[in-house]
UniProtKB/TrEMBL annotation:
Gene Ontology BP terms: rRNA 5'-end processing
Source species: Cellulomonas fimi (strain ATCC 484 / DSM 20113 / JCM 1341 / CCUG 24087 / LMG 16345 / NBRC 15513 / NCIMB 8980 / NCTC 7547 / NRS-133)
Annotated segments matching region Disordered: 157-186
HAMAP family from the UniProt entry: Nuclease_YqgF
Biased composition (Basic and acidic residues): 157-168
Protein name as it appears in the record: Putative pre-16S rRNA nuclease
Family from the record: Belongs to the YqgF HJR family.
Length: 186
């Protein structure tokens, strides 16, 4: 079976931030994206060999929902160029892919997801202070909805497959860089 073939099963989406991680999920048919949680980002020290609590929560959610794929938002500049936030999301996706295997992890373009999430929250009447509590979840919903729409339009999974086998040169499942910190594309 090709890696980008769409099969039935819940989809998860992750919005990776330096402080928080937003999580969203879909139904098994991939019709609707809904917010799940905002997780505190856990970054173990260099010598610690444990799975971060945020990654463990995502792994648990993937198992509970029978996830077919996990999408991780890849932040890019409006020009399409990648910066430090992209490198951090790529590194995070490698650690997540190792932890959630054999469920595939795919990086999808998330340009403007946080802006879109803020606009949606403001339109729903949430105050600016209350945005921080849920904006990461809302951004994950935007990422997932983009992926679901792309699946329906193309019949394929969008984004870059995070290839764990080629990324095992680094620190491993705690989200640190593997090799040069970039996930490989298949």
């Amino acid at each position: 079976m090709p890696h980008d073939e769409v099969v039935r099963g819940a989809r998860l989406a992750v919005d990776v931030g330096s402080v928080r991680v937003g999580l969203a999920a879909s139904d098994p048919d991939g019709l609707v994206a809904t917010p799940v949680a905002t997780l505190a980002r856990d970054t173990p020290g260099r010598k610690e060999r444990r799975v971060p609590t945020d990654v463990a929560a995502i792994v648990h959610e993937a198992g509970e929902r029978g996830a077919a794929v996990v999408y991780v938002g890849l932040p890019r500049h409006l020009s399409g160029a990648e910066g430090a936030a992209s490198a951090a999301a790529r590194a995070y996706s490698v650690g997540l892919a190792q932890a959630v295997a054999p469920v595939p992890v795919r990086l999808v373009d998330e340009r403007m997801s946080t802006v879109t999430a803020h606009q949606a929250l403001q339109a729903s009447g949430r105050s600016g202070r209350r945005h921080r509590q849920v904006v990461d979840q809302a951004a994950a919903v935007v990422i997932l909805q983009y992926a679901l729409d792309a699946e329906r339009a193309t019949g394929r999974r969008p984004g870059e497959l995070v290839d764990v086998d080629r990324s095992q040169h680094g620190r491993g499942a705690h989200g640190g860089p593997a090799g040069d910190g970039r996930a490989t594309v298949e």
